[in-house]
Backbone:
């Protein structure tokens, strides 16, 4: 029997945290409608000071659902969202789900080529996009099958006075307006405003079921090739409930979440779109993280819950200290998506008198797997304990049936009701990521036991259940909370005539953050020009994927079969 079969981490749970929660038999639509019923007059959303009540939010979702239905959107269809954080994003998300459609989230900072690749994969007929990107999607080849483009002007959700200021004939107003909106109707696109002007959808219209697919969330997965993780309503809802069960004393109907994480990212989606709304919280939305904007909002409605990544916490502390603004209202600060430096934890806790805890997850697990206790026994430098209903094993990466013991490094496997069902139209990749119980345990494993998700991460687990990340077997780079596939960046830069060979790795900078770094072998007689290489890469890659640092090398270390040894590359460039 595995040493983990008895779930030793349960003994480290904070008082009051259940070992198991009831797996919900509801859809995400049921949950948002319950919040509308329970908290109709409470503020659901705040955007630059403009507020939306839960009652108004419910009405907007129903009108948008009817608008999409009238355009021909049907259950099971994919509806692509390419939006920043804004009220329209959340309304579109739930409206599509109300019809039984499948939401596909996209990063609005992606290049046209990156977006095109994902649209080719999921085949959405309907795209709800930031108006600044409507022309990009309209230019996709006709054979892509995008039939409806709905353009969203995010400024329409701002206060009227602020919208008026953006229309002033001055340079500052013009610059602000151009950053937020196209400024005129997008050619060939319907307006989102016209979609939400419909009557409310009929109550008897068929509703999604808990096991229906709710979301395709694109991820680099364990191989580096972007693919859509298939997540059901139940997957997403149970992960939200697991997270809520972890918190000491959450106050339904009274929490104030700050949406500084992008909602197209798995972490931001679960903490903001699902968790905040299921708790009847006020969700304060920011289209991009700006410490000044956040602190301005905090003076009026102080946050109680700030899910973020380490650089956000660091910048928030610096800005708050400079402005003399207290962050002491924040009761829950959950960090994820990248390593949390213990020094930042100390600084945060000294400055706010509240705990900052690290969690861990991956898109394929909806995404949260483990979190440190929000209590005195949290252990900085670890990613905490598995959440309720989650089982873990540590195994030999090459032989998953060979299990490791406490404090022995191996690949982390995860099982639970929040684990995805596979990748969209990729059965072989799905089979590689999900292992049957009998492979990990033994032939006597229950026939209906759920599959084990291979995380690709090398970890150790202490005797009291705390997980520590040792390495990433999948060689992905995590920068600013986003996954970067080295292979994708290498393939782009190899097209530059100056580059003969290249290896892209993650290198740690002075702050401890991981940055995309390229070791390049240049053509004879060519001098390294980092600016030119970055400009070239930006034509194809999203900004966060573009290497921040280039290092010239004479040759790259390779294995006997010719594979670049990225670990040796990291060591090779460490002293340069």
Residues:
């Amino acid at each position: 029997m595995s040493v983990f079969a008895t779930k030793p981490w349960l003994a480290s749970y904070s008082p009051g945290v259940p070992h198991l929660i009831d797996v919900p038999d509801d859809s995400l639509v049921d949950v948002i409608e319950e919040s509308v019923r329970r908290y109709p007059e409470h503020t659901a959303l705040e955007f630059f000071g403009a507020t939306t009540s839960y009652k108004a939010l419910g009405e907007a979702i129903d009108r948008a659902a009817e608008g999409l239905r009238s355009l021909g959107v049907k259950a099971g269809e994919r509806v692509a969202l390419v939006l920043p954080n804004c009220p329209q994003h959340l309304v579109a998300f739930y409206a599509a789900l109300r019809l039984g459609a499948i939401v596909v989230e996209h990063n609005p900072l992606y290049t046209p080529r990156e977006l095109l690749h994902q649209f080719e994969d999921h085949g959405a007929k309907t795209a709800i996009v930031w108006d600044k990107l409507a022309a990009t999607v309209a230019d996709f080849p006709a054979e892509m099958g995008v039939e409806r483009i709905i353009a969203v002007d995010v400024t329409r959700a701002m206060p009227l006075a602020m919208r008026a200021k953006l229309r002033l004939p001055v340079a500052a107003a013009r610059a602000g307006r151009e950053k937020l909106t196209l400024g005129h109707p997008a050619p060939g696109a319907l307006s989102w405003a016209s979609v939400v002007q419909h009557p409310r959808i009929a109550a008897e219209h068929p509703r999604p079921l808990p096991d229906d697919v709710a979301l395709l969330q694109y991820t680099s997965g364990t191989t580096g090739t972007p693919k859509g993780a298939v997540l059901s309503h139940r997957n997403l809802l149970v992960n939200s409930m697991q997270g809520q069960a972890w918190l000491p004393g959450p106050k339904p109907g009274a929490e104030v979440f700050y949406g500084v994480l992008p909602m197209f990212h798995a972490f931001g989606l679960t903490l903001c779109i699902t968790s905040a709304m299921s708790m009847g919280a006020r969700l304060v939305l920011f289209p991009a993280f700006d410490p000044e904007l956040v602190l301005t909002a905090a003076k009026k409605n102080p946050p109680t819950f700030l899910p973020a990544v380490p650089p956000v916490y660091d910048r928030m502390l610096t800005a708050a200290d400079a402005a003399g603004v207290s962050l002491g209202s924040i009761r829950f600060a959950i960090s994820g998506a990248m390593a949390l430096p213990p020094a930042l934890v100390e600084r945060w806790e000294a400055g706010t008198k509240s705990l900052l805890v690290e969690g861990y997850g991956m898109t394929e697990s909806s995404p949260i797997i483990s979190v440190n206790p929000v209590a005195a026994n949290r252990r900085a430098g670890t990613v905490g304990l598995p959440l309720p209903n989650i089982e873990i094993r540590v195994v030999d990466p090459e032989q998953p049936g060979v299990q490791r013991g406490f404090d022995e490094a191996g690949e982390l496997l995860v099982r639970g009701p929040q684990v995805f069902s596979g990748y969209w139209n990729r059965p072989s990749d799905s089979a590689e990521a999900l292992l049957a119980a009998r492979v990990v345990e033994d032939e006597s494993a229950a026939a209906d036991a759920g599959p084990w998700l291979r995380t690709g991460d090398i970890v150790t687990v202490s005797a009291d259940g705390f997980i520590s990340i040792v390495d990433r077997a999948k060689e992905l780079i995590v920068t600013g909370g986003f996954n970067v596939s080295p292979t994708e960046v290498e393939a782009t830069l190899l097209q530059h005539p100056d580059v003969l060979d290249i290896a892209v790795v993650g290198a740690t900078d002075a702050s401890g953050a991981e940055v995309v770094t390229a070791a390049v072998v240049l053509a004879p007689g060519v001098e390294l020009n980092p600016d030119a290489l970055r400009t070239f890469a930006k034509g194809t890659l999203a900004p966060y994927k573009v290497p921040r640092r280039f290092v010239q090398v004479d040759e790259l270390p390779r294995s006997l079969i010719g594979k670049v040894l990225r670990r040796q590359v990291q060591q090779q460039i460490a002293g340069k």
